[in-house]
């Protein structure tokens, strides 16, 4: 029996909501099986009686009780003694939806998506408060970044909060700049001359962090919400030169923003 996932979404309550297109109803005892791609560990849940509308049906599966560990989990349909992977036609990407999901305080973040070969999977990541970067500029002698605060529990409104950006280098070296936060939207900037002056021998690496009123601890500047991995290979920023010394932002292998001074 052909079953295809036409819509897949993890709701704000961490419930996996699926719309299935199928020729016949699911059989009694049908189960959704999630298999961890790295370890092979399986988690399964009975699907009960899906709500049918013609040749489609909707199911809802709470994910938190399944105890899913970080990683990617491939989805299977198990019924009548057999198990098959679930084909998926939903690309599963909406940045607005991901932004709304990231407003809540969470320890785990779940996302449903379609794999490259067209099957349903669920990605699980640890979640902690971060500043998710949407744009970076080196202009007019300044480093500038803008983005949204994720997993902080703050409201997406117009409330202004005191904030600042700080670069941390080797040892106790720091460089501080200005930042503006309205709701969960931030803009931060600092002087490249200050960065160069604070860099010994005009060569080093700096780690930016955002400090926001009402949020415990500094927030790392990352770019993970869109789930486009490998930004250190995909995203390349232009180099700025201050007194002949190159300064360049870049992403690490785990998609955290850095600022490099020198060749």
Structure, described:
This protein has a seven-stranded mixed barrel with strand order 11-12-15-14-13-16-17. The chain has helices at about 95-100, 190-195, 230-235; strands at about 5-10, 15-20, 30-35, 40-45, 50-55, 55-60, 70-80, 80-85, 110-115, 120-125, 130-140, 140-150, 160-170, 175-180, 185-190, 205-210, 220, 240, 245-250, 255-260. By secondary structure, the chain is mainly beta. The chain contains three helices and 20 strands. The protein folds into two domains: about 5-125, Immunoglobulin-like (Sandwich), CATH 2.60.40; about 130-260, Immunoglobulin-like. The model has no long low-confidence stretch (mean pLDDT about 90). The longest helix is centred in the middle third of the chain and has 7 residues, at about 95-100. A hairpin with a 2-residue loop joins strand 5 and strand 6 (about 55-60).
């Amino acid at each position: 029996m052909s079953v295809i996932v036409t819509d897949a979404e993890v709701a704000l309550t961490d419930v996996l909501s699926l719309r299935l297109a199928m020729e016949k109803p699911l059989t009694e005892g049908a189960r959704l099986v999630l298999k961890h791609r790295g370890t092979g560990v399986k988690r399964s849940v009975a699907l009960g009686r899906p709500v049918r509308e013609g040749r489609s049906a909707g199911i809802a599966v709470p994910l938190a009780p399944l105890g899913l560990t970080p990683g990617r989990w491939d989805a299977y349909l198990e019924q009548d003694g057999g198990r098959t992977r679930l084909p998926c036609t939903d690309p599963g990407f909406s940045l607005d939806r991901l932004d709304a999901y990231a407003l809540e305080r969470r320890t785990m973040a779940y996302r449903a998506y379609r794999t490259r070969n067209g099957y349903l999977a669920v990605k699980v990541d640890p979640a902690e408060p971060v500043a998710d970067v949407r744009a970076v500029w080196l202009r007019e002698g300044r480093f500038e970044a803008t983005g949204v605060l994720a997993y902080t529990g703050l409201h997406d409104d117009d409330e202004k909060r005191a904030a600042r950006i700080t670069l941390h280098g080797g040892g106790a070296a720091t460089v501080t700049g200005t930042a503006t936060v309205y709701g969960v939207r931030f803009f931060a900037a600092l002087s490249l001359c200050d960065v160069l002056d604070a860099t010994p021998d005009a060569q080093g690496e700096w780690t930016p962090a955002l400090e926001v009123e009402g949020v415990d601890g500094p927030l790392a500047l990352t770019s993970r919400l869109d789930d486009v991995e490998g930004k250190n290979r995909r995203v390349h920023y232009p180099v700025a030169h201050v007194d002949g010394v190159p300064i360049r932002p870049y992403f690490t292998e785990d998609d955290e923003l850095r600022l490099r001074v020198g060749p």
